[in-house]
Amino acid sequence: MRGPRDPSATASPEKGEEARQAAAQAIEAFLRAIGYEISGELVGTGRRVADAWVDELVCGEGSDAAAILRAGALDMGSGPHSVVVLRDVAIATMCPHHLLPSHGRATIGYLPARLAAGLGAIAQAADACSRRLCLQESLGEAIVSALTRGLEAHGAFCKLELVHTCFSARGERQAGSIVETLSLRGVFAEEKLDLALALARPSRR
């Protein structure tokens, strides 16, 4: 049995028809085990859930976020360069503890050395990192790692603000509670912590 993956890993889960059918059957067995008959609206649910997991919820497995950032990156020369900050990046991920989703937004920033990525590439890389089984703490680290590896940036930071349905819909049932994490890499961890904290704050609108 394998555990939850490292968000920086690139190995892809099985996606063949045989694997999807096995997953669908397992989901139906789970529903029966907790007292549901596979009838009415539950007919076909096993396959719908299996397809949703493979095609959407963990579709980032196998993606190389650093490669996404490198593709089409612009060489701006040796600099100096401004810090780039992208706010309100949509994030959705799956918690490996209860297999329930977490969702929210990210503030992502980096200090280029030479390479600058397109804003769309940053959003795509964040989505590739998040569409996996991973903890929020690991997700932020994966995003800043992709920025520093893919762009060879001087530093990067990622602030995540997520609602965990394993906390809002079960357990303590704290609807509306938001979990914040801040991951730092390079100069932002070593000498520009105050700058990272300031840039990660919500902007006035």
Description:
The protein is an alpha+beta fold. The protein has a domain at 65-200: GTP Cyclohydrolase I, domain 2, CATH 3.30.1130. Helices cover 39% and strands 21% of the residues. It is built from eight helices and six strands; from the N terminus they run αααββββααβαβαα. It has helices at residues 17-33, 45-57, 65-70, 119-130, 136-150, 165-168, 187-190, 193-200, and strands at residues 74-75, 84-94, 101-111, 115-116, 155-164, 179-186. The radius of gyration is 19 Å and the shape is elongated. Residues 1-12 have low confidence and may be disordered.
What's this, in brief?
This protein is of the alpha+beta class. It has 8 helices and 6 strands, in the order αααββββααβαβαα. Helix 1 crosses helix 2 and helix 4 crosses helix 5.
Give the class-level CATH name of the domain at 65-200: Alpha Beta
Number of strands: 6
State the CATH architecture of the domain at 65-200.
Answer: 2-Layer Sandwich
Helices and strands: which structural class?
alpha+beta
Q: If you average the pLDDT, what whole number results?
A: 89
Outline the biggest β-sheet.
4 strands, antiparallel
Write the layout of secondary structure elements.
Elements: H1 17-33, H2 45-57, H3 65-70, E1 74-75, E2 84-94, E3 101-111, E4 115-116, H4 119-130, H5 136-150, E5 155-164, H6 165-168, E6 179-186, H7 187-190, H8 193-200
Helix pairs in contact: 1-2, 4-5
Features:
39% helix; GTP Cyclohydrolase I, domain 2; 6 strands; single chain; alpha+beta; two-stranded antiparallel ribbon; four-stranded antiparallel β-sheet; elongated; 21% strand; disordered N terminus; 205 residues
